[in-house]
């Protein structure tokens, strides 16, 4: 009898332990599920300044990256995700980084390739209005616009001792994408591209290589990486060596000055011997002749930029930096004929409490949003050329485009490093059309690289020529010839 009671008691204890274990497992699953939901982003249906519900799927959220003791510190990367308006199940997925370093991806979303834009109208002090952009690249591609490096846009650091450099940016972008795909499993099989412009031309090829290496090492989730897209990209940091040739071809300087520059500077306009008085004299003449021009588009009026450019873009350009008019400590709104006029709208709009609430911004994380932050940044990549070499060997697709009126990263410099890759031409130089008109010129190479100029465009080509760039991207992402 005692033996039976003892056995029953033992069984009851085992059952109780089993029940507690089951409860614990369920609790852990629920905790994990809640955690995933909390980091998976939030659907945004309405935005202040836009009439009615958004006719596309917008999600915003944060993804944690880095480590407090390593990798330059930890933080939360803020993103805007626009689902493809065509077929999100089948269409490619692109991660987009705006240049700088330190510029918010809001620039790419609202001023370049996203489905919404600010309505260009005289500012009256009220909340700026939003309108649809018909030429959004999201018509054929889902795009994640990310604020990187940390402390760009609405991203923020969790540690006061934050380090910033190219390789930390690369590792954070890699971490972000794999974590984002864990939270969005339905996109794990979609083809993936990495895109950006300007300074992003340096880290993006390395990001692509980092993701590719991670796939080969078996890091999960596997990313269906296909290639990359770069607009007017910094690549070798020798871009300004092509500025005199660009200026001469655009009739900005005389034949005599151009020949004198070639003779006295011998093709090097970056590191000048201070004893080379003749070269310095010629460069000063070049500066005076171009000082009244817009640095990003020579046909546009010279205007305030609405935010100081990150020091990184300029500190590596001794010559081009001279062409920039110093920004006043208190910026004034430029005339409406300036492209930067609408840049000021981003400050007015994003400073609004209702806008930040709609975007699900965490209160207290960012004091004052800046379109381009000016913070300390260490440059650890001197050239992206070796990464283009490696990626070409691995067979990744790439689209490299250049607005042909940009003096900051002249199309000649981009053509030069592409030529140095030494791949054979499979589709020779020819015009490509949009709406029946020549929109630029293109050439395709055997390493699956397509180069295209955008006629009449400046540094951020889609901002100046949205219709043409839309046609270019839609054809390329659909694997059709330009």
TrEMBL record:
<keyword id="KW-1015">Disulfide bond</keyword>
<dbReference type="GO" id="GO:0019748">
    <property type="term" value="P:secondary metabolic process"/>
</dbReference>
<dbReference type="GO" id="GO:0016752">
    <property type="term" value="F:sinapoyltransferase activity"/>
</dbReference>
<dbReference type="InterPro" id="IPR029058">
    <property type="entry name" value="AB_hydrolase_fold"/>
</dbReference>
<keyword id="KW-0645">Protease</keyword>
<comment type="similarity">
    <text>Belongs to the peptidase S10 family.</text>
</comment>
<dbReference type="Pfam" id="PF00450">
    <property type="entry name" value="Peptidase_S10"/>
</dbReference>
<keyword id="KW-0121">Carboxypeptidase</keyword>
<keyword id="KW-0378">Hydrolase</keyword>
<keyword id="KW-0964">Secreted</keyword>
<keyword id="KW-0732">Signal</keyword>
<dbReference type="GO" id="GO:0004185">
    <property type="term" value="F:serine-type carboxypeptidase activity"/>
</dbReference>
<dbReference type="InterPro" id="IPR001563">
    <property type="entry name" value="Peptidase_S10"/>
</dbReference>
<dbReference type="GO" id="GO:0005576">
    <property type="term" value="C:extracellular region"/>
</dbReference>
<keyword id="KW-0325">Glycoprotein</keyword>
<protein>
    <submittedName>
        <fullName>Uncharacterized protein</fullName>
    </submittedName>
</protein>
<dbReference type="GO" id="GO:0006508">
    <property type="term" value="P:proteolysis"/>
</dbReference>
């Amino acid at each position: 009898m005692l033996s039976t009671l003892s056995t029953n008691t033992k069984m009851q204890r085992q059952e109780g332990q089993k029940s507690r274990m089951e409860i614990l497992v369920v609790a852990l699953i629920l905790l994990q599920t809640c955690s995933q939901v909390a980091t998976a982003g939030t659907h945004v249906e309405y935005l202040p300044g836009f009439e009615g519900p958004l006719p596309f799927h917008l999600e915003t959220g944060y993804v944690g990256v880095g480590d407090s003791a390593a990798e330059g510190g930890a933080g939360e990367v803020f993103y805007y995700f626009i689902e493809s308006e065509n077929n999100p199940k089948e269409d490619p997925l692109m991660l987009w980084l705006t240049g700088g370093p330190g510029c918010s991806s809001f620039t790419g979303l609202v001023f370049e390739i996203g489905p919404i834009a600010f309505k260009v109208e005289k500012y009256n002090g009220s909340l700026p209005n939003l309108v649809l952009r018909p030429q959004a690249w999201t018509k054929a591609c889902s795009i994640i616009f990310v604020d990187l490096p940390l402390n760009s846009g609405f991203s923020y650091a969790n540690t006061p001792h934050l380090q910033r450099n190219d390789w930390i940016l690369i590792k954070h972008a890699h971490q972000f994408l794999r974590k984002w795909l864990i939270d969005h499993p339905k996109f794990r099989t979609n083809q993936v591209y990495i895109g950006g412009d300007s300074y992003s031309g340096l880290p993006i090829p390395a990001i692509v290589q980092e993701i590719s290496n991670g796939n080969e090492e078996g890091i999960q989730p596997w990313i269906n990486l296909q290639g990359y897209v770069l607009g007017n990209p910094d690549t070798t940091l020798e871009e300004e060596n092509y500025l005199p040739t660009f200026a001469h071809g655009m009739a900005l300087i005389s034949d005599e000055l151009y020949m004198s520059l070639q003779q006295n500077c011998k093709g090097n306009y970056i590191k000048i011997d201070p004893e080379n008085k003749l070269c310095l004299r010629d460069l000063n003449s070049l500066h005076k002749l171009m000082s009244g021009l817009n640095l990003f588009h020579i046909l546009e009026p010279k205007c305030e930029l609405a935010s100081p450019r990150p020091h990184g873009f300029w500190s590596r350009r001794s010559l081009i930096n001279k062409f920039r008019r110093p920004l006043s400590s208190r910026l004034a709104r430029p005339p409406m004929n300036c492209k930067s006029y609408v840049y000021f709208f981003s400050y007015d709009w994003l400073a609004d409490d209702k806008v930040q609430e709609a975007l699900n911004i965490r209160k207290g994380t960012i004091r004052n949003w800046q379109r381009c932050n000016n913070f300390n940044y260490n440059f650890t990549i001197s050239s992206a050329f070796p990464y283009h070499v490696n990626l070409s060997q691995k067979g990744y697709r790439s689209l490299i485009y250049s607005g042909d009126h940009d003096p900051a990263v002249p199309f000649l410099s981009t053509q030069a490093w592409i030529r140095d890759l030494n791949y054979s031409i499979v589709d020779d130089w020819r015009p490509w059309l949009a709406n029946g008109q020549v929109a630029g010129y293109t050439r395709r190479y055997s390493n699956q690289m397509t180069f295209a100029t955008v006629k009449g465009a400046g540094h951020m080509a889609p901002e100046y020529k949205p219709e043409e760039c839309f046609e270019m991207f839609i054809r390329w992402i659909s694997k059709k010839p330009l």
